[in-house]
Amino acid sequence: MRSEISVIIPVQNDAGPLRKTVAAILAQSNGLVREIILAVGPSHDDTRVVAQELAAAEPIVRVIDNPTGKTPVALNAAITASTAPIIARIDARAVIPIGYLTLAVDTLTESGAAKRRSCPEPRRFSARQRAIAAAMASKLGSGGARYRGSNVTGPVDTAWLGVFQRSALTEIGGYDERFVRNQDAELNLRLRRAGYEVWLDRRLIVDYQPRSTLQALGRQYWKYGWWRMQTGRKHRKLALRQLAVPLAVLVLASSVAASFWMPWLLVLPLGYVAALVAQTFVSKRDLDHRERTMMVGALVTMHFSWAVGFLTSASISVLRRNRRDG
Predict the structure, then answer these.
(1) Which residue in 114, 140, 268 sits closest to 196, CA to CA?
(2) Distances 163 to 62, 167, 198, 200 between C-alpha atoms, Å
(3) ∠ at Cα 112 (102, 82), nearest 5°?
(4) pLDDT digits over 32-82, tens only?
(5) Structure pTM?
(6) Rg of the chain in Å (alpha carbons)
(7) I want to staple 96 with a disulfide (CB 3.0 to 4.6 A). Which of 100, 152, 252, 267 is the partner?
(8) Residue 89: is its pLDDT beyond 80?
(9) Taking the CA of residue 142 as centre, how many other CA atoms within 13 Å lie in the half-sphere pointing to its CB?
(10) What is residue 288's DSSP assignment?
């Protein structure tokens, strides 16, 4: 007999996608879902109204408050409020397919891992979202992360969302509430250090709605860069691929500045742009010329926002340490 699942969803400014997300969970078979807990943060739209309507219509949907608006606080509060032995974290912008939770529970048990991870499949709505989705799924957009674009099923460092053994989450103390972003990677690192395995299953594909503007994408990736640095600082561990983007951006910016005296240095930024353009033609997405141009803009936004966030975080950490030591 399969164990029941508590589905937890941090929700903030998600009035648009939330109904589809919850409907997809309710459509799962075999009575596997014991409860769906929506941890609602302060929102500028009708997110709370939508969440309360869903709870009124479906007995297994519950709403709890997340007054801080922070994702890890929402997740910890939802875990505390949950009752099932298995926890499934779902994003408010994600739509899981039929059979997702059944497969996740079965393979979680078979593998003996602490968690089973899924793979985001960015879906396209507007032309810009099509371009952003293509950028996120590309080699130059994923940064070499195995859970994006890899066909491998097996142990990984980190991935997206997850279905967890509740006991493993409890043992390591849940999410670190200081981490506004990158809380998944930070949690995965502690799980692996505690002796648990983080397992990627390529069959667990989840539809994901990407940001709709470059401005929103830039804010998202700036935070990713900032908190990736904080994760590395806390655990004293950074992968070479995580250092590659900030180093590349520093080299590109320096070459542009120095090109006023040494014009030949422009070969570096021109080569960078050429690589991005080439990436749009090898993308698995079917894009027109306008969307390819947008994809280049999305890749530049992702790279530079992530790098600036990372470097700003590193600089402030150094300044704080110097003040403390001084």
Answers:
(1) 114
(2) 19, 12, 10, 11
(3) 55
(4) 889 999 999 999 999 999 999 999 999 999 999 999 999 999 999 999 999
(5) 0.69
(6) 21
(7) 100
(8) yes
(9) 21
(10) -
Q: Which residue has the higher pLDDT, 235 or 83?
A: 83
Q: At residue 136, does pLDDT exceed 90?
A: no
Name residue, tokens 């674009």: 149
pLDDT confidence of residue 124: 45
Question: Residue type at 10?
Answer: P
pLDDT band at 153 (very low <50, low <70, confident <90, very high): low
Rounded to whole angstroms, the Cα distance separating 264 from 211 reads 37
Classify 153 as helix, strand or coil.
coil
> Residues 161, 94: contact at Cβ < 8 Å?
yes
Q: What is the rounded distance in angstroms from the CA atom of residue 82 to the CA atom of residue 287?
A: 43
172's enclosing H/E stretch is: helix 166-172
In percent, the amount of the chain with pLDDT more than 90 equals 33
Inter-axis angle of helices 267-282 and 240-258, nearest 10: 130
Q: What is the rounded distance in angstroms from the CA atom of residue 212 to the CA atom of residue 126? A: 7
Q: Residue 208 pairs with which residues in a beta bridge?
A: 94, 122
Spatial separation of the C-alpha atoms in residues 302 and 224, rounded to whole Å: 10
How many other CB atoms are there within 10 angstroms of residue 297's CB atom? Answer: 16
Confidence (pLDDT) at 10: 94
Residue 113, pLDDT score: 47
Of 297, 308, 316, the residue nearest 249 (C-alpha): 308
Question: According to the 3-state scheme, what is the secondary structure of 105-133?
Answer: HHHHHHHCCCEEEEEEEECCCCHHHHHHH
What's the pLDDT at 142? 65
Only one residue has tokens 């799962």, namely 28
Q: Which of 162, 198, 171, 193 is nearest to 75 (CA)?
A: 162
